[in-house]
Amino acid sequence: MLKTLLSLALTASVSLSAFADEASVKKAIEAKLGGNKVTSVTKTPYLGLYEVYADGQIFYTDEKITAILAGSLIDGKSMKNVTSERMQKLTAITFSDLPLELAIKQVRGDGKRVLASFEDPNCGYCKRLAKEMVKLDNVTIYTFLFPILSPDSLEKSNRIWCSADKAKTWNDWMIDGKAPAGKADCDTAAIQKNVELGQKLAVSGTPTIFFADGTRVPGAVPLAQIEKKLDQPQNAK
Is the dihedral of CA 175, 179, 181, 186 positive or negative? Predict the structure, then answer.
């Protein structure tokens, strides 16, 4: 019993020490960054480095902040990209928290697989993605209009949102290049809410895709990668 208690006490002491170190690194790095808020500091098992997550980015430093390293950290044994895996976890969301009523909804086939995307109607990569995703079946797609590129992006978004068939008008423009010709005279508050939501979720570019497990993938990724992600059990709803 005594041995067990001593073991537990030692473990607790080590854990508290680690938290104390992380807290001191956080305070020191925030001072280096001019007081900018650091979201988290986590001790890594590599070379005494601490992972610092701030402003949607990961970088590394030591306990004395003698150096700051930017870029990907690769595990020398497994060759896995540690930084990429950590970014997946740190930027994950709770999919069920998304206000899906603010998105354009498209259901194909049984609609069991689910994804959401933030897209600007004037985004070339979004148009490339739309041409890829038209090939998807048995999926429900939620598209959040996210006009961040230009005033014309907002105008097009409003016209698409006010159209009688939002999904058709969106696809006509993104896939076939047929500009939305209707009026933008409906309640378009949803568009501003989408912009605010994207900022809250640290969406920094379009397209950005979110899957049902909460992970995000930025950019116009290949269809095969989307299919693979959708076919994972936690993404089938």
Answer: positive
Which helix (H) or strand (E) element contains residue 82? helix 82-90
Per-position DSSP letters for 119-175, written without gaps between them: E-TT-HHHHHHHHHHTT--SEEEEEEE---S-HHHHHHHHHHHHSSSHHHHHHHHHH
Residue 86 identity = R
Q: Give the strand pairing for 113-119 and 139-145.
A: parallel
Domain count, the chain: 2
49/78 same-domain check = yes
| Stated pTM of the model | 0.77
The pLDDT of residue 37: 83
- 84 token code pair: 């990429």
Assess contact for 155 and 184: CB atoms under 8 A. Answer: yes
Say if residue 145 is in the same domain as residue 48: no
Q: What is the CATH number of the domain that holds 77?
A: 3.10.450.70
Question: What's the confidence (pLDDT) of residue 234?
Answer: 62
Domain that holds residue 118: 95-235
Does residue 40 sit in the same domain as residue 76? Answer: yes
My answer on whether 180 and 209 are in the same domain is yes
Per run of 10 residues, the mean pLDDT along the chain (length 237 residues) is: 43 46 91 84 94 91 92 94 89 94 97 97 96 95 97 97 97 96 93 96 94 92 93 67
The pLDDT value given to residue 9: 37
CB 204 within 8 A of CB 91: no
Model pLDDT, residue 233? 73
